[in-house]
Amino acid sequence: MTLSDSIHSAYKGLTTSKGRSLLTILGIVIGIMSIMIVMSLGAGAQKLILDQVDSLGSKIIFVSDSRQAGGPPQPTDSLDDRDLTELRKKTNVPNARLVLASAFNSQRITYGSEVFDGAVQGITSEWERAFSLTPAFGDFISDDDVRGAAKVAVIGHTVRNELFPGEDPIGQIIKVKNASFRVIGVLPEKGALALFGYDQSVFLPISTFQNTILNKKYYGNFLIEVDDEMNINGTVEDIKRTLRFTHNIQPEEDDDFEVRPQADLADRLSTITTGFSLFLIAVAAISLVVGGVGIMNIMLVSVSERTREIGLRKAVGATNKDILMQFLIEAIMLTGVGGIIGILFGGGVAYTLAILIRKFAGLAWSFEFPVMGMVIGLIVAVSIGLVFGIYPARKAAQKSPTEALRYE
Predict the structure, then answer these.
(1) How many Cα atoms are found within 13 Å in the side-chain-facing hemisphere of 278?
(2) What pLDDT, on the 0 to 100 scale, is given for residue 70?
(3) Residue 57 near residue 266 (C-beta atoms within 8 A)
């Protein structure tokens, strides 16, 4: 019997019980669809994060407290005014074009009866130029505001909509941690930029933030812009040497701060998102194993129901190899069709989710079709059909034609 004859026989065998065949491949469809969705969303998240990091520019170096172990740059007792002053000296860090200081805290922001839970960031006036934070109306934080620890605030687009619906916020008083601040500016809608959710943030002069929100003179992190990419590695060493001196760290002691060039941060975030995606894929793959077991069970039932058919085929000359090939092809066809349907459905669902995320979350989320996921999905689906179809196929091939013809 030729391969085409085996495929034809397998097709006829599957189409005689369409309902059962469809239910059999459902587990494979769900598994492959899950893998496609996870890989697509993982790729979209990775691209969004890396694009945000890249928006800072390739000349940025991040300095933070090494004890934070990830997460938002919360102010601790590691980075202070002396560090900032020394880092801004050309004699210490000659290739630093700009040194920015910031501090961050999640707080409840209120105006009258309106409440919004958002981010409060202490910044300096240089942030306006560095990150294009020119207000849509009103003013930005000035050097005088920082020097005088003025109780003024610039609010993001979402904060404005939540606290001041239909009302001009300029000149109004908002409260953060029982302290009052006068709104002097409103930013245009910016979305998430450089890992900061500007639309959901309230910006205060860094000195004001330290006095009223933090109650201590420390910073969350420093962002240092280098004059040339060729000088990044040298600047990293200059920063480390300066901070080890200001922190009085002995040669045998470890740093209590962390210095990360933008490229290193991108690599780290890429590793994190990739690892998380692989974990989700592994979870989704469990349904493929369940689907494979289901296919084996259904194929065993099919072998039992078609015992007489197997006997007739053997009686007219079909060999054990022919019977084995037929049932193996049936299993592979089931999983192959399930894989294709799962890929199509998974791609469609991932595309729809990307649109919904862009629309309702306000993120610059792009749909990423996981070509590798499609290839892996098809290979895995066919492999499952092969692995879980071998036992039923062998059982069918080993049936005695005499006993099979007597089977009722």
Answers:
(1) 6
(2) 46
(3) no
Helix (H) or strand (E) holding 114: strand 114-123
What gap in Å lies between CA 104 and CA 120, rounded to an integer? 6
Residue 170 falls in which region: left (phi positive, over 0), alpha (psi -120 to 50) or beta: beta
178: left (phi over 0), alpha (psi -120 to 50) or beta: left
Q: Which residue type occupies 365?
A: W
Contact predicate 40/368, CB 8 Å: yes
Q: Which residue has the tokens 């901070």?
A: 243
Helix spans in 119-225 (H) = 127-130, 143-147, 157-163, 206-208
CA distance 318 to 295: 24
Q: What gap in Å lies between CA 46 and CA 197, rounded to an integer?
A: 17
Q: What is the pLDDT of residues 281-322, one digit of tens each?
A: 777 677 677 777 777 777 777 666 666 676 677 667 777 777
Contacts of 119 (CB under 8 A, 6+ apart): 104, 105, 106, 107, 196, 197, 200, 201, 202
Note whether 80 and 133 are within 8 A (CB). Answer: no
Average pLDDT over residues 20-40: 80
Instruction: Calculate the alpha carbon distances from 128 to 97, 143, 151, 163 in Å.
Output: 16, 11, 18, 23
